[in-house]
């Protein structure tokens, strides 16, 4: 649930990281909370890498499509740093999407002032917990 490191690598079009994650066993068919797979979000180049990495026989059939960066020796410390950064971004995104009132549910209700909480907490509030403006409208956002 949520987004994976592969989703983030695809979102940032980090081709080296996409290849590394796929070689390490990342599943390009996992769906995020918004029901999108990494393939759905991928650029044309990233889709090519996903195809090549998930269909090993393409390495022999279509060598002209292999990215030069895939053929060079990978500096593991550099890639480990990138993985750590992506993991940190995933955690930051997950934390930023949690309701600041109950810390249990996902933010899915937006007030007219632009601030958000989960549906359950929004029903209990008459003023925005962030800016203290009266809540006159609640918009349910599907996440």
Automatic annotation (TrEMBL):
SUPFAM superfamilies: Ankyrin repeat (SSF48403), RING/U-box (SSF57850). It comes from the Eukaryota. Residues 69-96 form a coiled coil. Keywords: ANK repeat, Coiled coil, Metal-binding, Zinc, Zinc-finger. It comes from Thraustotheca clavata. Residues 99-132 form the RING-type domain. ANK repeats lie at residues 1-33. The lineage of its organism: Eukaryota, Sar, Stramenopiles, Oomycota, Saprolegniomycetes. GO terms for molecular function: zinc ion binding. Gene3D superfamilies: Ankyrin repeat-containing domain, Zinc/RING finger domain, C3HC4 (zinc finger). Pfam families: Ank (PF00023), zf-C3HC4_3 (PF13920). This is RING-type domain-containing protein.
